[in-house]
Amino acid sequence: MIVWKGTVLLLCGIGLYASAFMARKSLRAARGLLSAPSVVQSPRARALGGVPNAFIGMAYYLALGAALPFCGRALVWDATFAATLAAALFSIFLAYSLLFVTRAPCVFCWTSHAVNWTLPFLLLAIRPA
User: Which fold has domain 2-32+41-125?
Assistant: First the structure.
């Protein structure tokens, strides 16, 4: 159980780093400081209420990491699992957009997507009895 939780926490850290990098890039883009086009300038980079996806990602990974010690409680696990499923589905939408609409390379985006697609499976391993 500890190994699974440690892996989830590690992935939250990786996702947080990727989100923080993209959040900084989003802020630089808002100030006109980017030297080349970036996915953060796409309308899909602000898919939920005009808030940059990177900021939502930062809040998500921090909340998931904070909830992890309490995932032994069924209600907390249920809410956390639902959040990871929502993030994984949102990542499918964003990955589709990245491949077929934006058509721009983004290593940090794909890193976050891979993390989001892995987290629901890892949470199944720590599901309370």
Answer: de novo design (two linked rop proteins) (1.20.1440)
Q: What is d(CA 70, CA 54) in angstroms, rounded to the nearest whole number?
A: 25
Contact 106, 36 (CB under 8 A): no
Question: Mean pLDDT for each consecutive 10-residue tract of the chain (129 residues)?
Answer: 91 98 97 94 92 97 97 96 98 96 94 98 93
Whether the CB-CB separation of 112 and 21 falls below 8 Å is answered with no
Q: In this structure, what are the phi and psi dihedrals at residue 50, rounded to the nearest 5 degrees?
A: 80, 0
Cα–Cα distances in Å, from 87 out to 4, 23, 29, 42?
A: 19, 17, 24, 19
